[in-house]
Structure formats: structure tokens, C-alpha cells
Amino acid sequence: MSKNEMGHQAIYDARSLGVPKMLVLGFQHLFAMFGATVLVPIITGLSVSATLLFAGLATLFMHFITGRKVPVFLGSSFAFLGGYSVVKSAAVAAGYTEQQGLVYACVGVACAGLMYLILSFVCKAYGSKKVMKFFPPIVTGPIIMCVGLHLAPSAIDNCNSNWGIALVAIAVVIVCNIWGKGMIKIIPILLGVIASYAVAAATGNVDFSGVASAPWFGLPVQGDRTVFSLFGGGADGGLILTAIISILPIALSTMMEHIGDINAIGGTIGKDLVEDPGLHRTLIGDGIGTTMAALFGAPANTTYGENTGVLALTKVYDPLVIELAAVISVILSLCPKFAAVITSMPSATIGGVSIILYGMIAAIGVRNMVENHVDFQASRNVIIAALILCLTIGIEYSAAGSISFALGSLNISLSGLAIASLTGIILNAVLPGKDTSFADEPKDAATLGRY
């Protein structure tokens, strides 16, 4: 254990808590990611059960490839929602169903996951530290902030469905985290979800009809929803190319998000994860996880900020706890009735806990810059941060929601986060002066573990 200046114990070996408490902590991580992870297949039409299966399998693969050194959960990525929509529309226009369009979209997502391997190779060939010179705190800090801030409206939208239920979740999380003792202090998110869900059920704000009709056991993957269903012949080559071209650029933003998340997790747990196990390994885990999920008809995966927020709240940093959550996710993917229970969770409950978790992600971005002594008296740093923040938020919530341009006969669309990330990277490389990098000075766990 390590003790920070607030007197909270940081736990790196959860086995000291005992098996029952570890299981409860695992369920908490599971519930933290459930709302957003399940929402993606609900929006797109992909399978909820397949989503749970490959969120768990991708997380376990990530932990394997990184030597169990990174306490990260891989859940559904929202970044690809636009890509699914574009490909589905193209498929319908070509005479296919939306469900068939989803299969073609998964081809594009699988290729996007392979883009991570290219960046991983660069990191391995030239060293993560050299690559990270292009991603100093003045770049990654604002990006991390934007990851949290651009999610915030979705939390508010969920809360708008019933602010009373949302406030129950918020109040329980705050009370348990500030005044709770022992295990209560460690599982505030789970308790907030349970309390809010119970109040919603008691007041008639939960529809359980889907739960009653769902079977107890079922296979999470259906053959006709996988990319392999296209291998039998008759696949539309033009639609496959459209899917790849439409979705591949999205990997630019998700890779930047990955780098920001890995630095945020490292700062939270007090370890330099870019150096050990290495950015090349985390990129492989994330990329292969996304490709594997897409091939079997599940959404793209990404490093989940919600679970980073849980780490910051609980200060239990043992990857074993998240591995338990992943195993539970795999088991529950075989139970459609449980998937129905989660799907019936009120959006206000999800919104209540998300307000805190998304806000903590943004706060971690601020802490990232503070702890690395970013000098905001330097004009270059102010300009870089200002453009990243304004471009991300401005483009994200503009009428178009993205920047589109033609490249020959192709229409390319980039998100605000992708454009802002590229802008920050380029400006940091060309503007005179130099910002502090993550490798400039050693930091022990007591320094990095502050919150």
C-alpha cells in the first residue's frame, strides 16, 4: 500500500482485502462500464450479449499482453457510432438491410483496430519515449480533459429523463466516498447504481417486461452477424471499401484517446505505463481487442475512462480486480436475462454516476498538467491548450458535428477530437520552445498517486 497526502490508502494488491471484497470491487468496475458499453449496441443494433463477451475477452487479452500491469477495462467505443451510421445508410441505399450494413461496418472497424498495430510498431522500433515526445503533457492533458468534457452532455441528457433518480445516484456516490468507512468508501459507484436503481424500481420507473421474456441461457454470437458470414461468397466489394474508407480515419482519434487514457491511468496509479509495460503493448491490446470484437459482430473497444474514474475514487489499483470484472462480463454474456436487466437500468441512473465519472476524467487531465509542471506562462503552451480545447468542443457541438472534406471522389469526415489532437501534436512539434515531457523527471507513486 501507498499513502497519499489525504491519508487514503492506495491498494496495489487486492488479495489483502479477501475474495468477497474483491468480487464486490469487480462488480463495481463491471457496473461502471455497463451503462456506456451496453448503450453502444442499443444505439447501433449490435448484439448486447456479444458486446459483453468481447468486452471481457478483449480486457483479458489486454491484461495478458501487458503482463497484468495495466488496470484497464476495454468497453464499447462511442467514437465509431458515426461510422456505423454512414455504412448502414450506404448499405440500405445499395439494397441491403441495416443489419447487413452493420456486418460491413464491422469490416471497417476491424481494419481500424489494425491501425493500432502500425503505431505499436513505430513505438517498438523507435522507443515509446521518443514517440511520446510528440505527446507531452501540454498535448495529452487537454486531450484527456476533452475526453471527459465531450462525454458530459450525454450524462446530462440521461439525467434529464429523471433528475430525482439521477440525484440519488450522485448523492450516494458523494456521501459514500467522502464519509464512508472501510468497504463503503471503496465501492461508491456500485452503491450509487444500486440505490438509484432501487428507487427507480420502487417508483415505477423501470420497465421489466424485457427481463421477463428473456431466456436464462443463450449463445452471445450469431453467425449471420459476424464478418465471417461474408466469406461464403457474394460479398459487395464496393461496400467493403466504403466501410473501410469511412471508418479508418476514426482510428486517429481513438489512438490519441488511448494514449491519453494510458497516461491518465499511469498518473492515477503512480506508475509510468508508457515505459513499463510500454505503449507498444497497450496499443496491441487495444487494437487486437477492437479487431477481434468487430470480426464477431461486437462494437469497437476502447480503454474506458469510467473505470479510470473508479480507480481514482477507490484507490484500489490491482489489475486482478478488473480481470474479475472481465470474467464476470464473459459469464454474464451467456445469460440474455441478465443483459435484459442491465438494459432496463434507467438512463437517469447511468447519467447520475456518469456526471461524476466523466468529470473526474476531465479533472485527471488537469492534474496531468499540474503534476508535470506545464508552464502556462509560455505562450506556446497556452496556444496549444486553447486550440485543443476549442477545436474539440467547438467542432463536436457545431451543427455539422465534424469536419468533412473531399479527397478525390471520397468524402472524409474527422471528429473534433481527431482534428484537435492532430493540431496539438503538429503545433507542439513546430512551435519554438519545449514543454515538460513525461520522461523529464522521475516521479514516485506518492507524487503521481495524488488526487
Features:
single chain; 451 residues; two-stranded antiparallel ribbon; two-stranded antiparallel sheet; 6 strands; disordered N terminus; disordered C terminus
Describe the structure.
The structure is a single chain. By secondary structure, the chain is mainly alpha-helical. The chain has one domain (11-448). Helices cover 67% and strands 4% of the residues. It has 20 helices and six strands. It is globular and about 65 Å long.
In short:
This protein is mainly alpha-helical. Helix content is 67%, strand content 4%.
Quaternary state of the chains:
single chain
Strand order of the largest sheet: 1-2
Quick one: biggest sheet?
2 strands, antiparallel
Q: Which ranges are low-confidence, i.e. pLDDT below 50, for 5 or more consecutive residues?
A: 1-7, 438-451
Domain count, please report it: 1
Strand residue content: under 5%
